[in-house]
Amino acid sequence: xxxxxxxxxxxxxxxxxxxxxxxxxxxxxxxxxxxxxxxxxxxxxxxxxxxxxxxxxxxxxxxxxxxxxxxxxxxxxxxxxxxxxxxxxxxxxxxxxxxxxxxxxxxxxxxxxxxxxxxxxxxxxxxxxxxxxxxxxxxxxxxxxxxxxxxxxxxxxxxxxxxxxxxxxxxxxxxxxxxxxxxxxxxxxxxxxxxxxxxxxxxxxxxxxxxxxxxxxxxxxxxxxxxxxxxxxxxxxxxxxxxxxxxxxxxxxxxxxxxxxxxxxxxxxxxxxxxxxxxxxx
Length: 282
Known about the structure:
By secondary structure, the protein is mostly beta strands. The chain has five helices and 16 strands. It is globular and about 55 Å long.
């Protein structure tokens, strides 16, 4: 089994509201976790990979690596959720790419979805494994989106029901539909340090904050757009320069600068070159 680059979703551009009631599209809940592809053979986990194909071997995936599956052999695409430690950890499956050596990449979404539901039903004894919430009719899609919005969730991904799985693509067959109540998540590059912090006397404390930017294809490097409210010693902050971070913000200006950015976490599964001015986190 080889790692398959995940299919990614397009950002909704304000012209996609009609897709929520379009009979050609289904709605799949958009999860706020870590993209995770699991390879199963002989009822055992033989590989866990993040969005970029890096093996996930940290303690947070130990329970998945040790798991004996009812499923014999498959490649699952989903999201790893660890909101509050072991009791609430969960792997949510939203697609299946291969079963028992048979590739399902050419199958329509609705057919793959039927397989997802059948496979996860076999794992009912394990509440940490479940299928994503999905809806196919207009009324059910509207109800699902309303439920996720009421829960404070991110939204849904609208998926064309006849579309195959396209590894490595950001296909218009998948479109993100984000709740208007949520700040959006953006991927930015940590470009450097600044002593312009909330501390009135940084020259005494030695504190600095991080600057962030977006990758410019024209320049072939990241360009600084602003600063984040993350403060620490120069040595500590310097270690983060060059990393990719996820931040919350209300909007992004054409320059790449964000309105009221709030640092969430670093991520190691996305390249600096992917963090362009229009890059919303996925």
